[in-house]
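Troubleshooting: if your tokenizer reports a length mismatch, compare against these two reference records.
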Amino acid sequence: MKVAIISPLIESVPPKLYGGTERVVSYLCEELVRQGHDVTLFASGDSVTRARLRPMVERSLRLDERCHDPNSHHIIMVDRVIEAASEFDVLHFHLDYCHFPLVRRLGLPSVTTMHGRLDLKEYIRVYSYFRDVPLVSISDAQRAPIPDNNWVATIHHGLPRDLYPFHAQPGSYLAFIGRISPEKRPDRAIAIARRAKMPLKIAAKVDAVDRSYFEARIRPLLSGADVEFIGEISDVQKRDFIGNARAVLFPIDWPEPFGLVMIESMACGTPVIAWRCGSVPEIMVDGETGRVVESEDEAVDAVERIHELDRHRCRDVFDERFTVERMARDYVEAYAQRAEGSDRRLRVA
């Protein structure tokens, strides 16, 4: 198939450091190419891919100090994608909703993967207005705020099998990885580790919007020797950081749409202690890939009993459910449905 994949321009594909959406876009692009599809990636110019790259900006906007309005770049990109639409069997967007008016009016064969939360008032309003635009959810739980939209598939994320090596032997610390923000609850992770008398290592990005939260709520908790704040790390660094952990703490306090950390940990063989929020019960296998908990007391107990879980089984579940090969096959099926059902006369026009 001839597929156009349209990525956000905030990060490169793949991202240099943090960036869940762009990381998944990269894995999907490379696997589709490997499976023999003709893939064109619309992304920032510093992206690296075996697909055909059409650079929309010189470099990722987060790293470009000259960028003051990311929306302007995305609007131009959408117009350029629409202009080239007749070259492709399907357009696969990862841009939230800015392209919805055009793909609906022109009847273009498209799918849009929703990567974020959908429960905010403004999101519910705009997605309900464009309820006929074909969407892919990354978990069934993600659909809850707008269940009546045109959901064509739920496709769980997948990772390359060799991206994270299996670690049979656990280390002596707990890990928290991702982003410092109120909904990720790093404060809860620190409390759990201290009650369980286990060292905690935190590898996390601090966005500008979360800087005041970090300074006021989290930095004061980092004074003890039992908590080490490492900062943002790369994919290569994550392999040992996650793999050598006794367990990964995922104490979220929001409707998480997926949670790459959980399957990255499974790939390493590291169990996850995760709060029962959003996609967690859908992605986790309680008692096999970790523990799904609902309180700090339950989390502390799970840490103390984490040795009961089989790290080999964590990896087995990853191989069974969360590989990039499976993800790409699922998307190809969704692409074929959209290409066959589209009005090609409108597409050419």
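Reference record two:
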Amino acid sequence: MGFKDVYNLVGGFKQWRSDDLPVLPFENNHSPWVHTIFEKETETAQYIVTDIETKEAYIIDPVLDYDPFSATVRPTMAKQILEFIEKHNLNVTKIIDTHVHADHLTAAHYLKDKLPSKPEFWMGSNVTKVQEVFSKKYNFTNAQLSTTGQQFDKLITENDNWTLGQNIQCTVLNTPGHTPACMSYRIGDAAFVGDTLFMPDIGTARCDFPGGSAEQLYNSVHKMYKSWPNDIRIYVGHDYPPANSGRSYEVMTTLAAHKESNKMINEDIPLEKYTELRNNRDSQLKAPRFIHPSLQVKLWYLYCTYM
């Protein structure tokens, strides 16, 4: 039927070992429980990532609802996150934004204020480059906007590693291209890549923002391909199902699926072809609806009044 690497399981695992069939060694790296809350207005995936044994949890890329007509915000999505955390009695120690979002406002500030654990707010260390660009664009003075990243509790670099709970090993890759501050987080056998990759039938995020680079994004994705195992679960930041695709929203697939079938950046597509595809697509895109309020809220660490 076309299947490869098929073996007979008669005799169970003892027989498997005696026949010297392939065994993946245990790497002392457990699998986290990943819960997704999808925000349809900006088509953003928010994640609560939990170590079941200890109930320690992280929140990744939370959304604060924004009404552009009244310029007001509501914590509707954030309250759903809080309800889930309370229901399962989770201890949230970190809120992680994979990058400086241009399409939604972060709920990190609101959640940190509401959670009794007072989790740290993490951001990639290259956020300072984004701050420098947009402080000039918005005419912020040094007194109004420090470009040192001090607004965040911790700035993450590629060499950082830590543990969720007792057994889930965490590492991070610096994956610029969409923005200079994009980071991709591996938490056990799951990876949270923000806008670096979308689902395979979409491709990748745009690269035409200030500091963006199609060549950098190509290199970032291939760094993932070389650094992570094929069966790692890839959780994306957004999903935009193609017209007439017939599929609903999806946010997870394997790295192997991207290597094989990502329409823009599978393993067989060279840099020149990807750059052409990405630049052609970016030339057709409009600026995100919420780009200016979202960047100002994220970069300035502005506290708003929540309805």
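Descriptive notes for reference record two:
- Residues 301-307 have pLDDT under 50 and may be disordered.
- The first strand starts at residue 33 and ends at 39.
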